[in-house]
Amino acid sequence: MSACVSCFLPSHQPYFLKCLVNYILTAGGNRASFCERRLRRTLENGTRSLPPSWFELQAICTMKPLQVPVTLMDGNTVRVLMDSASTIQEITHQVAKKVGIRDKFGFCLYMTVSHQVYSLGDGHELIMDDIAEIELGLKNVNKREVSWELYLRKELFAPWQDPSDDKFAADLVFQQVVGGIRFEEYKCETDEDYADFVSKSYYIDRGKPASMESIKNTLHFYLPEDKFKSSKEDYWAQLIFDTFQKFLGEDPEMTVDKAKAEVVRQAMVEWPFLFSRFFVAEKFCGPGPDGEDVKLHNLIVAVNWRGLFLLKEARAENGKQQLLLELEFRHINKAVCERGGVYVMVQTEDGGEFVFEMPDAEKLRELVSLFLGKNEYSKELDALMEAKKAKRPIPPPDLNNAGGLTWLLQLPLTALWGIASGVREVVKLPTRLFDKDEPQPTESLRT
Q1: Beta-carbon contacts of residue 258 (< 8 Å; ≥ 6 apart)
Q2: pTM score of the predicted model
Q3: What is the largest CA-CA distance in the chain?
């Protein structure tokens, strides 16, 4: 009975529901209150779509709460309570409350199992359904021996977010960026860009003043392994030292919190596609560069703080994703769902209508509509975008000028590492990011 009421509701509601509650309370014995709580939680968050996992069944049999550790990107772990009806959003909010994060938008749960990393998102889906779905997809694995872990990461930035508004959120994203650069999840284009990130990270961890010798001794904490070798240590130490001095000279009143916010803001501008939410579009129809309608199949839709992007699901011969369409948010009028939530139409200010057929049409509409409602871009981000133009062969869109719709046919998108696959988003992240055995900076290097 405990397992049943944890997964689904009785038919013929509400007539039978009162009878079931009365039966549980009178004949349930020592499980009465446990079963009633499970039933009420199922009534609150909805019926499960998949049977319970082995981990969940063990908790039901023992009537013990599910206490699950969630690892943060700074290496700390937060334990949260969950049950069969817990949603992913409830878990992320629990973690955010314990850590002190005020601006929770964009923080999502990730799950690692059998050397795979899965993005669970931050929505109202039942987390136990997601775990059961992933376990069922594992082949040649004893389900009773499956070991999985949960992580909280920053997945998406919003156009209105300012990293300096929430120092706890900025600290976690900063740690994520430092680890991502070290393990080559985030790749800079030039040595100067690497030096810029490393100099700020060094200041945050060690403070000032910096010396050539101390920088040389900490290179392995910040740079990818293939970037520095014994023969290049002096080169990197000198470059980072010079950048460090310039960085402090430009702002003598620099603080640790201000430097963290600056690193996060740079990551937001530098790698928009690595901080995106991906959707699978089975079909697409919209005006092409010559004004004629274009119909495409099996595409990926990426949404980030810059806008909406259409990508080919199949990779090119060079192994790179291809960007087909780019729509800036300030040139989108609205997004509406049609035909029962299977189709979503995005309308631009020049009258263009782009229709996507996808299983998550309503989720895409909600996200685009949310961004359209708060599409005031930070002046600081605009300035950073303009500064990047001189360095990039393909600059990001100019947020101050017209031309919000740009077709970029056969353009290799080297920054995209995330791949949406079916309903579950499988994210290609370096597994070393989640390896607890990796050497970490000593306490003296941390704030």
Answers
A1: 164, 251
A2: 0.80
A3: 78
